[in-house]
Amino acid sequence: MHLFYDCTRYDSNLSVYFFKERRWYVAGRFDSISTSNGTFAANNIASTKDGINWQAMGQGADDQINTVFVDTCKNVYIGGKFSNAGGVSVAQVAVWTAVSNNWAPLGPVLKPVTQKANIVNSITADCDGGCLSCKVYIGGKFAYTLPNGLYEHNLFFNNL
Asked: Are 22 and 1 contacting, i.e. CB atoms less than 8 angstroms apart?
C-alpha cells in the first residue's frame, strides 16, 4: 500500500507515521487530508487501513502532534504542543481509548506552569501487565510543580 496524501493548511506538516495491526496513523499539523477518494477533515491526526479512506479521530488535537504510539490494547497515545484533544484539556499528552473511542487526559502528568512551554516529542507504553496497568514513558521538554518547587525534566514516567 502507498500512502498518498495532501494535507491542506497554510502551514501543514505531516510529521508522524505509525503502523499497528494493519492500520496507519498519521499526525502533525493539518486540518484535512486529500486523496483520490476525496478530502477528509481531520485535526492533526487521522488513521487509515487502505491509504484512500481516512478517518478522523474525534475532534483531534488543537495544535501540532509530534509523536504517536499504539499499545497492544489498541489505545492511541499522542504527544506534542497541543493543550486540548477532542475538546478535553489534556496538557500535551492524550490517549484515545480503544474502549470508548474518545480522547482523554493521560493523568495529572504535565500541568503547565507559568512561562514554561511543555512539548512532548516521544511517547511509548508498556502494557505487559494488562490493559489497565500500562506504564507510559514520555520524552520532551516540560516542567511541573511539586510541593518543594519547580522541576524541569526531559523524561517522565506515568504508571496508569
From this structure: no
